[in-house]
Design goal:
Layout: H1 2-6, H2 14-20, H3 33-38, E1 54-56, E2 70-73, H4 74-79, E3 87-93, E4 96-101, H5 102-108, E5 110-115, E6 118-125, E7 130-135, E8 137-138, E9 141-142, E10 145-152, E11 155-160, E12 166-168, E13 173-176, E14 186-187, E15 190-193, H6 194-200, E16 205-208, E17 247-251, E18 254-257, H7 258-264, E19 266-269, E20 272-277, E21 297-303, E22 309-311, E23 315-318, H8 319-325, E24 331-332
Parallel strand pairs: 4-16, 18-24
Antiparallel strand pairs: 1-10, 2-16, 3-4, 3-15, 5-6, 6-7, 7-14, 8-9, 10-11, 11-12, 12-13, 17-18, 17-23, 19-20, 20-21, 21-22
């Protein structure tokens, strides 16, 4: 099946993905027996979306989340091979600044961490290009997250280990189980080049793999994916007038294309200030991430009452994913 899906997508890593993402048919309205066997603690009677929208792809934890992250100073990360223009998720809390390279998150998708005293889940879904940081605290408990091995609208479905509830990564919303309908708080971060993170936080630290030989970190297993005509493992409607895999900045259910941002460089609407500068490569283009084509850095901030700017919560995802999760949302392309 994976071979059929990938036809024409120019993904050199098709063999790896075929083994890594062996897609099963979407679930029916009834709970499949294999789900109950693999998820005995999940309350399938509680769900906020039809179960048939959730696609089984790989086994539970087949993509292993990182639970004990290790970091090095930014200067050392450069010596270890992280290129200046490679994308990282930059996050700071309480004076503690950390960068999470997409070259690592590509293979793990979730990092459970504590930054500045805040338990966080740093997440990335390569198929939707969605990068979000969540507060892991919910109603008096601290959750930890793993990868279900399932997708909805091609987006990562996470699970929490405390209740075995399933969560939509792009929305931070519980889908299935005891915590269905609950929402995680999303925290401001930036998807930025390593050089920009290092300039902002000279004393910042950078995530490194515990075992560098465990994965081919720095290689993109989805080569040329973001220049494909159609997304992978997605059957829903596509946006009109915008390429399905065009990057869009998503804020409050509204989106602006990178093409528009490159043209204008700065967009101000209401209290939002969205800027774009070159200097970041795509993680989903070339075989080696560091060789990816230029896509640029988008920064989203809100203007305070005193005129100063503060980082806002935003996401840089693909247009098709925005269309899927915000069917009534507007994509600004001109």
């Amino acid at each position: 099946m994976a071979g059929d899906v990938l036809t024409g997508h120019r993904l050199r890593a098709a063999a790896l993905i075929a083994a890594f993402l062996t897609a099963a048919p979407p679930a029916t309205a009834d709970v499949p027996g294999e789900w109950r066997a693999e998820w005995p603690q999940t309350d399938f009677a509680r769900h906020t979306v039809p179960l048939g929208e959730i696609r089984s792809v790989i086994r539970r934890d087949g993509i292993p989340a990182i639970d004990d992250p290790q970091f090095v100073p930014a200067a050392e990360a450069a010596r270890l091979g992280l290129a200046d223009r490679e994308p990282v998720i930059g996050f700071e809390a309480g004076g503690d600044a950390r960068a999470y390279p997409l070259r690592i998150l590509m293979w793990h998708e979730i990092v459970n961490d504590t930054v500045g005293g805040i338990p966080v889940a740093v997440t990335y879904c390569p198929l939707c290009n969605s990068a979000l940081v969540f507060d892991r605290r919910l109603e008096g408990r601290v959750l930890s997250f793993g990868v279900t091995g399932k997708l909805r609208n091609s987006d990562l479905v996470m699970y929490d280990r405390e209740t075995s509830s399933w969560w939509q990564q792009m929305m931070g919303e519980g889908l299935v189980g005891a915590l269905a309908g609950k929402r995680l708080a999303t925290l401001p971060m930036r998807v930025e080049s390593f050089a920009r993170f290092r300039a902002r936080f000279p004393a910042g630290r950078v995530l490194v793999p515990r075992d560098p030989a465990a994965r081919d970190y720095g290689r993109n297993p989805y080569e040329a994916y973001d220049s494909s005509a159609r997304p992978f493992l997605y059957d829903g409607p596509l946006p009109e007038g915008v390429p399905a895999l065009e990057r869009v900045v998503v804020v409050d259910g509204e989106a602006w294309t990178f093409a528009l941002l490159r043209k204008r460089r700065k967009i101000e609407v209401r209290d939002l200030v969205i800027t774009w500068e070159e200097g970041q490569v795509s993680a989903l283009d070339s075989e080696r991430i560091s060789d990816g084509r230029e896509v640029g850095n988008a920064v989203v901030q809100r203007r305070r009452g005193d005129g100063s700017l503060a980082d806002a919560v935003y996401d840089v995802s693909f247009a098709f994913a925005f269309r899927a999760f915000y069917p009534k949302g507007r994509i600004h392309a001109e």
